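cron nightly-structures :: item 1 of 1
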Amino acid sequence: MTLLNAPDFDSRRETRNRNLLIAFGVLILLLVVSGVGGFLLGHGWFFSNLPAEHKVSNFFSALETQDFGKAFAIYTNDPDWQQHPERHADYPLKRFTEDWTSASPVGEPIRSHHVDISKTDGTGPFGSGIIVAVRVNGDHKLFMWYERKDGTLTEPAPHILQYD
């Protein structure tokens, strides 16, 4: 085929190619925005810390309703803890309840909470855990540690986060 025998112009094919190119560009832009947006908003790259934030929020919601059994199950990541309480002999429900009522980190029972931000911390490409900052009873900041390998929670976190 020579230049003089070129195929006819196919406008549908050109339109399809242009639309695919635009769609690919929009997809790349959305990936960049969601990745960087999650980091800038304090929820991890691609919002990867949201599951840990959700777990911490559920934990504090259980404390607010004084459902200490549920809160203990979330804290230890053991929903069937009542079938084997001997596994938690070092930190039983009674002590947990005391620690989160009269001897709570804020000095009073938990009445309200708001998960503010989270940050991946520790070793490895995605860190060994996540520090979740929670505002409790309006003005008290707590920092919970979410351990990635076993899903347990710990208070206090290894260090605090600076934020407004």
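cron nightly-structures :: done
Residues 48-154 form one domain.
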